Amino acid sequence: MKHEAKHPLSHYYYDIKDENIARQPAEPRDQAKLLVYDTEKDEIHIDIFRNLVDYLPQDSLMVLNNTGVIPARVFFVKDTGGRVEGLILYNEGVQPDGTIPVIVNKQIHLGRTIHLGDYSFEVRRQNQQYFYLLPLFDVQLLPTILLDLGTTPTPRYLGNISMPEDDLRSRYQTIFAEEKKSVAAPTASLHFTDEVFQSLKTKNISQSEVTLHVGMGTFAEISQSNLDQKILHTEPIEISEKTISAIYSAKNNRNPVIAVGTTAIRTLESQADILLSGSQSAIRTQTNIFIMPGFEYKIADILITNFHIPQSSLMALVDAFLLNKKSKKTILDLYRFALDNDFKFYSFGDSMVVL
Fold first, then answer.
1. Backbone φ and ψ of 5, nearest 5°
2. Per-residue confidence at 223, pLDDT binned at 50, 70, 90?
3. What is the distance between the alpha carbons of residues 334 and 319, in angstroms, rounded to a whole number?
4. What mean pLDDT do residues 188-201 have?
5. Is the bond leading into 28 cis (omega within 30 degrees of zero)?
6. 244-254 as b/e, with b when 16 or more CB fall inside 10 Å?
């Protein structure tokens, strides 16, 4: 099948049966299945994630997203007693006017007060699907309040997950998560265990970390406006001086850079010119980059990723990576192979590495 750049919506539709959607994570984490696609040889292998090191090149640099998930799904109560489900976009932080952005499942009226336990918010303004709430308490308490009253924001397309909340908070979190601000996990990293990290040392594969606090830029549905402007919602990113130095060294020494997940690759590629310039200053900024076929990758040589929902920006990103590698297979070719071989898809699903 000839691989050409196509419309990111029409090209990325596929049928999936319910049994191919993972409702539980693999146990242990690194027992998830692994699809290995070697673009140079046009070969596919099936393995498990624990054996990832067998397929990676010696002396590579692996870059992971160290963000953590905060229990950002909450249930507000209106003065009338009605309940409103909300997703607090904590990754976007406190706005200049002191408000916090939230997405809710039903209309709330400007000027009204809504409540979360003993804490109240005033509905200040609206911008499309976002409402901006002014906390009527010390906003510094919000992370603690969410830990107490919030629930894990697993994607709605997974339906009801039968795991207890405490278990879900542990399993929908990477083992190396640091600052918890994301409303979704960097799911490609959920498969990593201490044993996998230990195995990487046998090939002198080093690790560096970047930060992208996941919000709607990663998971929102693609709109025509996104396509026309080639931008997504903005998400905050950080790259430390240490990571910048490691990436600059790897690229200069022609050591492959392995990006773990679409959030890591968006972070790296959005700052590619700075990373390749020799600048040693830490980066703390935002990105709204929308990677689609035709994009020229400058940093990532290898991609580790999960299997994504149809017609998503994430599928466009992975297909752009395949195209950049001059792959003979499209993302739909690989997805159909995975479905035919009983791979599990989505956030708790299996993994793929594109070499």
1. -65, 130
2. low
3. 10
4. 96
5. yes
6. bebbbebbeee
pLDDT at 85: 92
Residue 313 has pLDDT above 90, yes or no: no
Return the closest-CA partner of residue 103 out of 92, 82, 88, 123: 88
The pLDDT score that the predictor gives to residue 253 is 95
272 Cβ neighbours under 8 A, 6+ residues apart: 298, 299
pLDDT of residue 32: 96
Contact between residue 197 and residue 207 where contact means Cβ atoms under 8 Å apart:
yes
CB atoms < 10 A from the CB of 48, how many?
A: 15
Task: Give the integer Cα–Cα distance in Å for 120 and 347.
Answer: 32
- CA–CA distance, 289 with 29 (Å, rounded to integer): 30
Report pLDDT for 261. 95
Amino acid type, 217: G
pTM of the model: 0.89
pLDDT at residue 1 greater than cutoff 70: no
Between residues 235 and 301, which one has the greater pLDDT? 301
312, two tokens: 């998503």
